[in-house]
């Protein structure tokens, strides 16, 4: 899930110097996009799972002026109501493989039953192109030593701002959104809906528990002394969610991220049936596992190799590359 | 991703009482599945995100006997190399919406550039149908004792058939699909593309390493004595993949499932950038973590609480409910 094409509305840490939001250029509207005159420059991104591809093209010839375009192609979902028609009327089937009761085929359908959704951004600016550009991802195996020598100095050098977290904990912002609070300064936390969840349906339920205690940056800082805090989050978080939303603990996925997107300890609660972004094995650590590991060995997360993925444009990757650790 | 809407085209165990795939019977390979004579009974599941639909059908008429079939349709990913052709040669484009620089269209392609991957399970048993039917999911926390008292007796009582696995290991089926083999009976394995992957693009690369040694049911059976086997799979699997497909080890997600879908030890290799079904934290265990845990403690997976999700219709869930363990 490293490179989800879905919008990323989660909050991240903001680096002190916010040089982000570019200018507000606006381009003229075009009624008919001259697709046949598009020359494809490169593939910006694609997703085999979603059956989408993002292209950078240029429109030349009579109708174009060489302007850039982003063209997004997406295969369309099957429609229940015409699926019988698909299978019986028009089928051309080619056997690929057969083993026991299983076989696979290539099926060819007439175009009108198999359309492609096409989205065009034209003219597109460099900023649009960057937005859709795929980044390679690399797996890092961070030993305890790597954390001390590479990751920790990197985190400390960046002086990330997590003011928005403190605003929540101090009720200076979003106080009306808090679902539950245990106010204990050492072992307490605030439970709040994640921004990704609009709270309109339970299907994609997503909440975050943010601990009151400051200075616990991530999983790497946890020892047995944090067990009371972690047990509170697990137990009281589940209780608050069943009380407010009617979703039982057995239908929740409760986990930490490593690396997290901000370095103040927090725990994710998502509906188990929801294929939430960031719940894959190379990023998520079940809170129940974390508790059991700390019970067995207080130093588990100081010593243990932790695996995570970094995108090619992330500065931390460069640090690992410089140390020849990737 | 317990209840991933993603296609589950992987092969599962067939129960012993299943006439179709019990013991050593082999169902005759059907070169042409009589798709045109399939009557669709119902939609078992569909995913708008994945562009898949799972159908329960029956084959009647001249070529059929009324047997059930599961037919899985999945739109195929775009292929980078023919995308320019898609856009320039054959396009029929219909404007849907235009607003400022953004516009959307319906695009119609010739069938040969827009095929549907079709997987057929035929004849299918009630168990196959249930497997693909959408269900609620529940999280199980299985202690080492639970495994001995609930899960293991359940697995043993079912006498699952994994004849298709043995067919591969003995080169009775799919021999031409093998990417790599270490023939050692104790520490060797076969590496083969997963059925979910059509091998046409690397984006959703998916292979399976199946160990030669029989009797290792799952993660729960692993001890330090299996470290040579696991290290071979990790090292040689990566080497074979970079050699054949040019994908480096740092761009692979290598993991086991618990619970697995069949009880003969196997390891999944997927492209890290691919949001593969079944790679979420409540099911996947990174092979590198498994190796490190066994190095620290040979009994780790015998003693450890393991978390996994079960669907409402799975008989194992009922066993946990009867024991009041969920």
Structure description:
Two copies of one chain form a homodimer. Chain A has 326 residues and is α+β, with helices and mostly antiparallel strands. Chain A folds into two domains: 35-132, 2-Layer Sandwich (Phosphorylase Kinase, domain 1), CATH 3.30.200; 137-322, HIT-like (HIT family, subunit A, 2-Layer Sandwich). Helices cover 23% and strands 27% of the residues of chain A. In chain A, β4 and β5 (102-108) form a beta hairpin. In chain A, α5 (227-245) packs antiparallel against α6 (287-296). The interface between A and B is large, with 103 and 118 residues. β6 of chain A pairs antiparallel with β6 of chain B.
CATH class of the largest domain in chain A: Alpha Beta
Poorly predicted residue ranges of chain A: 1-10, 14-30
CATH H level, superfamily name of the largest domain in chain A: HIT-like
What is the CATH topology assignment of the largest domain in chain A?
HIT family, subunit A
* Mean pLDDT reading of chain A: 85
Q: Please tally the β strands of chain A and state the result.
A: 14
Radius of gyration of chain A: 24 Å
Helix percentage range of chain A = 10-25%
Main beta-sheet annotation of chain A? 6 strands, antiparallel
Beta-strand content of chain A? 25-35%
Enzyme class (chains A, B): hydrolase
Protein name (chains A, B): m7GpppX diphosphatase
Main location (chains A, B): cytoplasm
EC number (chains A, B): 3.6.1.59
